[in-house]
Design brief:
The chain has helices at about 15-30, 45-55, 65-75, 95-100, 110, 145-150, 150-160, 160-170, 230-240, 315-335; strands spanning about 1-5, 35-40, 60-65, 85-90, 120-130, 130-135, 135-140, 175-185, 185-200, 220-225, 250-255, 260-265, 270-275, 275-280, 285-295. By secondary structure, it is of the alpha+beta class.
Length: about 325
């Protein structure tokens, strides 16, 4: 078996430089022939290397960095018919994806040891438009724009505190945008402060964004914050922290959907955030790719409610339900 470690040498506090040899050695002890690739400032560096490694037959790709690095690696392999397994080493600022998979975030060595447990999840992946994939979140409006404004050197130095500081600075400038959001068979149209389309339960370090999110059920968790002032937004954030109670608020629409279309009305620009980076402007269509990539995860710490745990398609669920009902009816007839 062969493993390729694709790491961002500048992510977080540059811990991967210190731990790289230990990580490679740990993978070797697991039976992998292991090599590494350091990403460069060149556009699509991680994406291109991930695609090359997948086409070259690597069995495992380890993405080491922040959510942006993981996103790039996923974009490299997601379009391919045969995709290697993935593992992640969180070395970024918020590490939302690692939080969802319960990957240890203290050191890269602790994170890579999850592979040895051989616990995996067939993770859903999001497709934005025709060729942009995302692993965790698509968002737009208001506070979602702060990720575009925090300099990378500030994130490296101060981490998540940099986002908090920038968010406090931006609050007075938040203005609702008139938009239309279609989700499956429903439509919301009106002034909207922000929306989030999530694949996990973790956004910006908050792990209660979508309390009932599943990692592999083929559905997005859609959260729409209707027009709100500063006080209301702060109240909603407080409710989010307090066991996810924000989803029951009258200022919020919360729903599950497989396909979502977003467009800005009144010709106002609406930038889309994909996994923390700029992903183009609306209008845009988002679709789920159910159970698309197999990720190593720490299933011992993930709630049973968050993972289906097996490969499933809608038609298979329908067939299974019919078989169950038929067998139950036959059983009750025999008992009579």
């Amino acid at each position: 078996m062969r493993a390729r470690v694709i790491y961002n040498p500048t992510s977080g506090k540059e811990l991967m430089k210190k731990y790289l040899a230990d990580v490679l050695n740990e993978l070797e002890q697991m039976g992998y022939e292991t090599s590494a690739f350091a990403t460069t400032p060149q556009k699509n560096s991680a994406k291109n290397e991930a695609k090359r490694a997948a086409l070259d037959g690597f069995n495992l790709i380890v993405a080491a960095g922040g959510d942006g690095t993981i996103n790039e690696v996923v974009n490299g392999i997601a379009p391919l018919p045969h995709r290697p397994r993935m593992a992640i080493i969180p070395a970024g600022t918020t590490n939302d994806f690692a939080r969802a998979l319960k990957i240890p975030r203290r050191t890269p060595l602790e994170a890579i040891k999850v592979v040895a447990k051989n616990q995996t999840v067939n993770m859903d992946i999001g497709l934005a438009g025709k060729e942009h994939y995302f692993i965790n979140i698509a968002a737009g409006g208001g506070l979602t724009e702060l990720t575009f404004e925090v300099p990378s050197e500030l994130k490296t130095t101060f981490g998540y505190l940099a986002y908090i500081a920038k968010g406090a600075e931006m609050l007075p400038r938040i203005k609702p945008i008139n938009m239309r959001i279609r989700y499956d068979e429903k439509v919301w149209e009106g002034n909207t402060s922000m929306f989030f389309v999530g694949l996990t339960n973790s956004v910006g370090g908050f792990e209660q964004y979508a309390p009932n999110a599943r990692l592999d059920d083929g559905y997005f968790s859609l959260l729409i914050v209707k027009s709100a002032n500063i006080v209301e937004i702060m109240r909603l954030i407080t409710l989010m922290i307090n066991d996810g109670k924000h989803i029951d608020d009258k200022k919020v629409i919360y729903a599950k959907a497989k396909e979502i279309e977003i467009e800005s009305l009144d010709d106002e620009r609406l930038m889309i955030n994909l996994d923390g980076d700029y992903g183009g402007d609306a209008p845009i269509v988002l679709k789920t790719l159910p159970q698309h990539i197999k990720f190593y995860a720490n299933l011992d710490d993930i709630s049973d409610d968050a993972v289906l745990g097996y490969d499933v398609k809608d038609d298979e669920l329908d067939e299974a339900a019919v078989r169950f009902v038929t067998q139950y009816e036959n059983y009750t007839k025999k008992e009579e």
